[in-house]
Amino acid sequence: xxxxxxxxxxxxxxxxxxxxxxxxxxxxxxxxxxxxxxxxxxxxxxxxxxxxxxxxxxxxxxxxxxxxxxxxxxxxxxxxxxxxxxxxxxxxxxxxxxxxxxxxxxxxxxxxxxxxxxxxxxxxxxxxxxxxxxxxxxxxxxxxxxxxxxxxxxxxxxxxxxxxxxxxxxxxxxxxxxxxxxxxxxxxxxxxxxxxxxxxxxxxxxxxxxxxxxxxxxxxxxxxxxxxxxxxxxxxxxxxxxxxxxxxxxxxxxxxxxxxxxxxxxxxxxxxxxxxxxxxxxxxxxxxxxxxxxxxxxxxxxxxxxxxxxxxxxxxxxxxxxxxxxxxxxxxxxxxxxxxxxxxxxxxxxxxxxxxxxxxxxxxxxxxxxxxxxxxxxxxxxxxxxxxxxxxxxxxxxxxxxxxxxxxx
Length: 409
What we know:
The chain is mainly beta. It has helices at residues 5-33, 117-123, and strands at residues 39-53, 66-81, 84-97, 105-115, 127-138, 174-186, 191-204, 213-227, 230-243, 246-261, 266-277, 282-294, 298-310, 318-331, 336-349, 356-369, 374-387, 395-407. It has a single domain (5-407), classed as Porin (Beta Barrel), CATH 2.40.160. It is 9% helix and 60% strand. It has an 18-stranded antiparallel β-barrel. The radius of gyration is 22 Å and the shape is globular.
């Protein structure tokens, strides 16, 4: 499913200007605002990886395996300009395949986060504000990322692989952008108010059969600390999903829940609520349960969610996603860390059987830090996707990767 060279080159240029240029422009504005007192620290890094995929073209039959070299230069930055703290990065990724050379490509990614708590607290004590923007251009973009719920957007600014609950729909030039503005206000020692605005956009190349999507969300809520270890939570969310050439769809959601610390090494957060889709007159339950347990040398994180979102371009519809994710991180030595991750997702379009996809993946990896500047990573991915709807497709993929990262602090 590769795109043509001419279109790919045009899309690369335009997306590069939007993503990387936008992040750098925002950084320039921030630094120029406090040029006299600006303090910026840059951290360049370079990752070179060799990987093997047994299904390089994401097909159901006649799979073709191939080796590829992946080169990712990146420039991270942190700093402070007057009363604004900022952090982010900008980078590129080049994939070079040995046999399937038409799949060789370049991608770009960048992110910027600005924290203005110092400035806003002068205007109104207790008021905090954080603005984040991330962008990515790639041909390996999961068209549906269930963990990217409107109340907690998943970061786009990283090389994306068909994993972590995503549904892959082939290789197409894709540009994604995620903007989040979140604020909080400390009413008292027990009560906090919070509000957010989220704008997410995904655009696909014209050679794909996917639908460009955009969502705008407004989130408001509060938290009440009943005790030092228990906090009650409540959120209200309004989201408008827009699709190219189709009518928008609105959803309303609310949830209540609690967060509790069981000693210093166990934290559990649970939310339950409902989402309403007026155009379909459909009420759907939603929930989010997450637990984090820390042992002496092992961290365990488990999350189960159910929410309503778009289908990521598969159709001009909304869908329900049920996702279960688990990650176990074990520090074998101070320099050697092992990670095992797994995800299981069920995605279905609301009211129709157009989208009906099940996905699971398993992701073990090892990371060894030779020093503060050099680390080596070996990882394996098994990914399975099964589609029973009228859109989407089924396929399996196994991928092994070995890479070296050099960081200049």
